[in-house]
Amino acid sequence: MADEEAAVLELGAVDSLPKGALAAKLQIARAEGRPLRVKLGIDPTAPDIHLGHAVVLGKLREFQDAGHRVVLIVGDYTALVGDPSGRSSLRPMLSKEEIEENAATFQEQALKVLDGDPERLEVRRNSEWLGMSLVELLGLVRTATVAQLLERDDFAKRFSANEPISMLELLYPLLQGYDSVAVKADVELGGTDQKFNLLLGRDIQRAYGQPEQAIMTMPILVGTDGRRKMSKSLGNQIGVTDAAQEMYGKTMSIPDEAMEEYYGLLLHETQPDQVQPRDAKRALARGIVAWLYSEAQAQTAEQEFDRVHIEHAAPETLSDARVRVGEDGTVHLPEAIAEAFGISRSEARRLIDQGGVTLGGAVLGKGEHDVPAARADGEVLKVGKRRFCRLHVG
């Protein structure tokens, strides 16, 4: 029975280690009359959870649906250090204010995928236990050796290339491993880039006299560029709280060769055969929006996409943007774009200069950053392919 349940839960995973450990954990938990405690840690280094995170969150939901308890750790303390996984240099440190602002949105966004029932979900912040004394920290540090940490692929590459590795970065895997001690994790999930950290968590649990967790790694979803890991910093992400129309449009922008991966990791389906790639991509976009919103909103998002990108019309519903008029009677469009869409003025100027902005259906030319107020008032401003608003002067 435990073997069968483990086999179902392991579907889609890259690794489930050690072999047979998940089935053993299930058998022990059943004998003790309790659910498994299944851990995932996410550092709030950006304000949004994206579909790359949703791959692992979807697997956690499977554990919940099987009757187990997910422990979602918001790494507000480890975010101060910065996870070096997959990095060739030290991550920049965020301020406590930035981390808190990001952390505040995480639980709400994770609930787009997870079941929020308190019997099935426990949300913790690792600042609860990582603000330890120096004596406690030294006790944690002694659980691993420098040689062991340098076995990590990213550390090993940097060490062989004589590139610097900070002591702060070496601490990160230890802190993440201690999270498993603090919450008494039976199982820990993560992306394939987290395999070393997850296995180290077993060593740290053993050093603290706890049973060692089973680990499961999930594939890493490529971003909308089809090449690199989905990441906010790379600008290739689809956020789980993006508007339905935005989510649909971004999905339609992924390369054809990435569709099979999106189908498998997000919808747990195979890409349909004997259909045109565009039709398969439309079905994929509908499926993702329906998963995170509803079938009705998926249909509306598709209709809106067709209206904008096939009929070349403005969306049926437009947000209004109030813009200021300068002393010379003009509207400074980079400022209006920055305020309407939350991008920087320099990015707005670049988009204008590259021909990526239209006003009233006319493409703005290079350097056309200021327009007469009368020309802007009441007109539709389009930035890129999917951002629209109606300008109102005054």
CATH homologous superfamily annotation of the largest domain? HUPs
Task: Report the CATH architecture of the largest domain.
Answer: 3-Layer(aba) Sandwich
What are the low-pLDDT stretches, counting only 5+ consecutive residues below 50?
A: 86-90
Number of separate helices? 18
Biggest sheet features: 6 strands, mixed
Shape: globular
**How many domains, in number, for the residues?**
3
The percentage of residues in β strands lies in 5-15%
CATH class value of the largest domain? Alpha Beta
What does this structure look like?
- The structure is a single chain.
- The chain is α/β, with parallel strands linked by helices and 394 residues long.
- The chain folds into three domains: 2-218, HUPs (Rossmann fold, 3-Layer(aba) Sandwich); 244-309, no CATH class; 320-393, RNA-binding S4 domain (Structural Genomics Hypothetical 15.5 Kd Protein In mrcA-pckA Intergenic Region, Chain A), CATH 3.10.290.
- The chain contains 18 helices and 13 strands.
- The protein has helices at residues 2-9, 21-32, 51-65, 78-81, 96-110, 127-130, 134-141, 146-149, 153-160, 167-183, 195-207, 244-252, 259-267, 277-292, 295-309, 333-341, 345-353, 373-376, and strands spanning 15-17, 37-42, 69-74, 121-125, 187-191, 214-218, 320-323, 330-332, 357-359, 362-363, 370-372, 380-383, 387-393.
- The strands form three sheets. A six-stranded mixed beta sheet has the order 1-6-5-2-3-4, sandwiched between helices. Strands 7-13-12-9-10 form a five-stranded mixed beta sheet.
- The longest helix is centred in the middle third of the chain and has 17 residues, at 167-183.
- It is globular.
- The N and C termini lie far apart (69 Å).
- The relative contact order is 0.10.
